[in-house]
Structures are given as C-alpha cells and as structure tokens.
Design a protein that fits this description.
Strand order of the largest sheet: 1-2
Radius of gyration: 30 Å
Low-confidence stretches: 320-325
Shape: flat
Number of strands: 2
Mean pLDDT: 89
Number of helices: 32
Largest sheet: 2 strands, antiparallel
Length: about 500
C-alpha cells in the first residue's frame, strides 16, 4: 500500500532510519517534504549536509516546499538551517513570516513547549519583530481550556514576552476558564498567576480545583495537595490541606500515608492532629502490606504513637516478618499466584522451606522466579526448595517477552553460579527476546557481554538493525565508519547524495 500522508511517510521514514536503511529513508523524507513536512525537511537537510557540506541544493529546495503550521517543526527546520550555515535559506524562511502562520493550538502531546521554543528560535535568528508578533498573537488568541497550555504560555510570556502580553492573557480570565482536572498543571498555573500578580485568578482556580477534587474522590484531594506542595504557593495550601484532611478516604492507607507525609513536610501540626483523630489505624484496609507499611512509617514520622501501636497490632497477623531478606519478601508475597500463596505474608518464610510452593509455582514469569530464587539463595542457600526449583529448569520455561525481566533473572542465575541455566537463558534471550525499546536493547546487550559467550553476543548484535537499533549496532562495531551511509541487507551502503534521491 502506497503511503501519501505526512504522518504515514514520517512513520515509515523513522522506521527506516532506525533500521539503517538511510537512502530509502531519505527518499521518503524528500517525499514528505513535498507535502510540506518541516520535520522531514530538517532531517533531510542535516543528513545531506553531513554527506556533502558544500551542497546547498537540499536546503534551498526544502525551504520552497514546506508549510509553516507546526511550531515545533518550524523550529526544527530553522535550527537545522542555522546549524549548517544556510543563511540565505534562513532569511527566505523568515520572509514567509512563520510567526503569523503557525497554528496556536497545535496538539500538546506533540510538544507542549513548541510555541516557547519557536519564540526563542526566532529571537536567536534575529527576527525580534516576528517573536514579538508571535507572543502578542498567542496571548490574545490561544484557547484557555487546557491548564498546561495556559501555564506554558504564561511562563513563555513572562520570560520572553512583554508585560503587555501578560496583561492581555490575564485579562482573559484563565483561572475561571481553564479545566481544573490536571492537578500538576493547575499547581504550576496557580504559581505563575500568583507571581504575575493575578491573585484573584489564582484563588479562583484553586477553588475550582478543590471542588473538582472533592467530586472526584478516591484520594484526589491528597494528590492535589501533593502537587501544590511541589510549587511555591504557600498562600493557597491551607484551603487545599483542610479540605484534603476532611475528605481523605481514611480506609486507604496509601492515601493517608501520602497526606500525613505532605502535612508533616509543611509543618501543619493542627491538620495532622485532625487527620489522626479520624482514626486511620482502625479503618485502614490491610490487604496491601506495602501500603500498610507506608502508613506505619508515616504515623511513626509524625509521632502518632497510639495510632502506630493500634495499626501494628491489627496488621501483625497479615504483615510480613522483618528478616534480613525483607527486601525480597516485600514484593514476593503479592507476586505469587493465589493458588500457591500462603494465607498471609507472615506464613511465607515457612512456606518457602517446604517443597510444595517451589514445586507448584508457575515458571512463566521471569521476574517472579528471580525474586523467588533471590529469597531462597539469601535465606536457605543449601535447602531442598532451591534445588527443587532449579531442577525444574526455569531458564528453559520462563517467558522471555520482557527484556527487563529476562535481565533480572539472568543476573540472579549468574549470582548463583548455575552455568547451565545461565547458558540456556542467554541463548534464548539472544535469539528471540523482543528488543523494541532502546533501553531494553542496551541493558540486554550489556548483560550478555557480562555473562554470555561471544557467539551469543554476536547473535544478538545481528538482530539489532532489523529491530530498529542500527545506531547501537554501529556503536558496537569495530569499524563504525563503514556504516556511515547506512546499509543494504547486511552490507554497508555505497556513498550517496542529493542526486541519488531522484
């Protein structure tokens, strides 16, 4: 199927660049540029300049093709042209007045700070009049429904615009018009409005956010308070904190723990007393041991000794035993499937010393097996359960779809010096573990280099280009310059340039 949209061409080109098929990717970028794509144009200009710095034809051609609607894309092309020294093309692009053409409400998920970066780019390029025009246009016409968009805009105007631009935006009453549901953005916007002297607007937005959090329930006020505490808006914290204490779901130990921590950090002793008076020790649900542990820590931190004792007594039959292998036991109980999990976390150490649990635990989850092996190795290294589990050959049976979990299990097996298990899992991982993410690819390669053979490492490296990690493949090569122009199949591509793109 032939792709003709900018988004489709960009997606295909991205994949080809990642795989090392540079010439094919450049041809798609050229096609996308004819549809007006500034991102594709910027990449094309950059790559061809690296191949032949004296050839100005790609830059001259690209500037004639692009549309100027996407602020982030325009910034990318302007910066690229300036970097490669295409001053005439910079002037030609600026002459098309991108400040008047870019779309103000470009999707935030593409780049929340696109307008700010374009404004700074225009100033850096010496187009101060266009930068001023962009700031004034954004202040007067940007939609105010999204608090993040408004916060980014107000921050931009305060740092790179003028006081008149700020006044225009504030006069449009963003505190009353923006949505109050994104608490992180709301907290930032309240801080910015306060710093701009728009205290009535800030107070209005705080009141609306508190009302939204009350209606949302389920700890929303505690989250709102937490986000407010991250900002320098002390004058607005009291109302949020008082409402959070009154409405906190007292049976949720995680929410109460977070709220106590925030109140303690803010020195709100009266509100701590009010929250403790609601008796969280009696009401807290106990089914998540880590949440209960967090609440115990918070009660201890704020000095609520009576509540601390009461909750500890309630939780004792359900809590995990404090042992030297506590870090492993902390997550192991919750991770075990119900049909092999003991009745309570306190019974887990005893269950681990019997053959039943290790004989019946499924072998598909490498993270669970790593935790289980780590617990047995640290506490009962010579016991039968450890031998039974290893005899079941987990390396041959675990699912290897998650590279991070595979690395975790490989490292655990290496620590146990189980050579056959390490070899089996390393062979499987090198050959078939999915490696879609760059971080996963790097971590698995690092692990294989430490514990695998060169054959396993080479097998893994062979898979990198087709998996979209050509850059990592080249970095691992002993002759990286051979791959400067990309690859065709498994061989380096001959040098190519502008005339080869058709």
């Amino acid at each position: 199927m032939t792709v003709t949209s900018k988004a489709g061409l960009q997606a295909q080109a991205d994949a080809l660049w990642a795989c090392g098929r540079f010439r094919e990717a450049a041809q798609l970028d050229k096609q996308a540029t004819t549809l007006g794509d500034c991102f594709a144009a910027a990449r094309l200009v950059s790559v061809l300049h690296a191949a032949d710095p004296a050839d100005q034809r790609p830059a001259a051609w690209a500037v004639e093709q692009v549309t100027l609607d996407n602020p982030a894309a325009v910034t990318s092309l302007l910066n690229t042209l300036r970097r490669v020294g295409a001053d005439d093309q910079v002037a030609e692009l600026l002459a098309r007045e991108p400040a008047a053409r870019v779309v103000l409400e470009f999707p935030l998920e593409d780049d929340a700070f696109a307008m700010e970066t374009l404004l700074r780019c225009l100033r850096d390029a010496g187009a101060d009049d266009q930068a001023s025009a962009l700031a004034a246009r954004a202040a007067a016409h940007t939609r105010l429904d999204d608090p993040l968009r408004v916060a980014v805009l107000l921050d931009m105007l305060r740092t790179a615009g003028t006081s008149e631009d700020v006044a225009v935006l504030v006069a449009r009453a963003p505190g009353a018009r923006t949505a109050p549901d994104d608490y992180v953005a709301v907290a930032w916007l309240v801080e910015l409005l306060s710093e701009a002297g728009a205290h009535d607007q800030a107070a209005t937005l705080v009141e609306r956010a508190v009302g939204h959090a009350v209606r949302a329930g389920a700890g929303s006020l505690a989250r709102l308070l937490g986000d407010f505490c991250e900002r320098d808006i002390q004058g607005y914290l009291a109302a949020v904190a008082e409402q959070a204490v009154a409405d906190a779901p007292i049976s949720d130990p995680a929410v109460v723990a977070r709220l106590l921590t925030r109140l303690h950090e803010g020195g709100a002793d009266d509100l701590i007393t009010a929250l403790v008076a609601r008796d969280p020790a009696r009401h807290a649900h106990l089914h998540r041991s880590r949440d209960v542990a967090s609440l115990l820590d918070s009660l201890d931190r704020v000095g609520a000794e009576g509540q601390l004792r009461a909750l500890a007594e309630r939780a004792a039959p359900h809590s995990r035993v404090k042992q030297r292998n506590e870090p492993w036991l902390a997550g192991l109980f919750d991770a075990l499937p119900p049909h092999v999990r003991p009745a309570s976390a306190a019974q887990l150490p005893a269950a681990l010393q019997t053959p039943t649990l290790v004989s019946e635990v499924p072998l598909d989850d490498p993270r669970l097996i790593a935790k289980l092996l780590g617990t047995l190795r640290s506490s009962w290294p010579s016991g039968n359960p450890l031998r039974i589990l290893l005899a079941r050959d987990p390396a041959a049976h675990v699912c290897i779809d998650d590279p991070e979990s595979v690395v975790l299990l490989l490292n655990q097996l290496r620590l146990m010096r189980t050579h056959s298990q390490v070899t089996t899992l390393a062979e499987r991982a090198a050959a078939t573990t999915p490696i879609s993410g760059e971080r996963d690819a790097k971590e698995l390669l690092k692990c294989l280099r430490i514990i695998g053979t060169q054959r396993q490492v080479d097998r893994f490296l062979e898979r990198l280009p087709d998996a979209g990690h050509f850059k990592l493949f080249v970095q691992a090569s002993d002759q990286p310059e051979r791959w400067r122009f990309g690859r065709e199949s498994d061989q380096p591509t001959d040098p190519w340039g502008w005339d080869d793109l058709g």
